[in-house]
Amino acid sequence: MSRNVFQAFNDDELPETREPDDVYEPDDGSDSEGEEFNYTYPPDEDLPDDDLDSDEEYVLTEMGPVAFRFTEDYQPSTSANPDIGEPHDQRLRAKDGTLWSITPPANQKTPSKNIFRPAKTRHSNCNGMSDPTSAFNLFISPNIIRDIVKFTNLEGQRMDGGKWMQTDEIEIKALIGCFIHLGAMNQSMFPSELIWDVKCGNPMARSVFTRNRFLKLSNRLRFDDKETRTERRERDAFAPIRDLWERFQSNLRRYYTPGPFITVDEQLYPWRGRCSFLQYLPSKPDKYGLKVFWACDAETMFPLVGKPYLGKVGRTPQVNLGRNTALELCEPFFGSGRNLTCDSFFTDMELCKALSTEKLTMVGTLRRNKVFIPPEFQDPKQTEKGKPRFAFRKGSMLVSYKSGQKKNVIVLSSMHSDAAIVPEKGEKNLPEV
């Protein structure tokens, strides 16, 4: 109900109050939340004498009688679910009191958070890119290479003194290119003896470096000034590579414009060295490594924003880590009308609301223990196989779907607002969300 003017009487103008038992209640079948206070005057009772316009409606609430004035263009809502304003038998109540409607809202204008205006080109500022080398120079920019050369030479002189052979930008580029090539050939974890083997080794690596020079450069490779690292590390555990990391990510977003869909997830980089934020994840193929949260383009898998997980900050446990991480990764795209897709580690109702205020939508799976999920959705037995259940609320929608015999999948979406079904091969009644 759109109320253009809200006006309340002063205390000295209040009429004599009446007990609720004597109040006339119109029999309109409504039973919306909070209606126990919305009593109207009986038709035969005199309204307060005032000079207000005749198009005002007086309502007796717990705060006293108030007047609502409606403009001529006011039209009552015809939606079956304007804002969970249905009888109790049409609602689902969660443990925390959140109300959901089983009836979808009426068709309405597309909200601004669902409007995405694509860029003219995905590769902005890339006029000079014509081959792989020029593309490499865009992302690993010359200032990054110069800093690597500078700090690597400082470390080499500190370790080897006069025996250190100075490196330069060409050699550092070749070293990075060799790393990329070994990774593409799935040989990054091979021992160096095998890579430089004459018969079974990698011919490209042998043609660029001798084995001793490759190991020497790899061992002395540095990305920051080691003299000031201790002070910076007290504030940031990622200090040895923080500056390079931020500049590289800035280049990722500068030279590529993502599409309408962004995905947030985590990635574990296998590693077993000494590190204060080394992670052990038994569910991953490589159980030990460094964890990084990424926001990527869902269509091309292009990385956009990355955040390394550095463990606890002091002894204070991190609260709502998934929600805060997702918001931080999506910050560069606020106001763009894009959609975020994530898993149950990130998804919750507060994230959905926060993204909606920034004109972003969200689709994500949910854990069953969330308190805002109705019990009917949490129990897999109440969802039949191939028959999805829907629940609606202002700005969001819940879906429970079971494709197997035991478990059901619960999805929260602020992008969809109807019970649309998409026919898929092998799946019956598959929800569009």
From TrEMBL:
InterPro entries: PGBD. Transmembrane segments: none annotated. Pfam families: DDE_Tnp_1_7. Residues 1-52 are annotated as: Disordered. Residues 22-36, 43-52 have a biased composition (Acidic residues). Residues 131-420 form the PiggyBac transposable element-derived protein domain. Coiled coil: none annotated. This is PiggyBac transposable element-derived protein 4. It comes from Plakobranchus ocellatus. The lineage of its organism: Eukaryota, Metazoa, Spiralia, Lophotrochozoa, Mollusca.
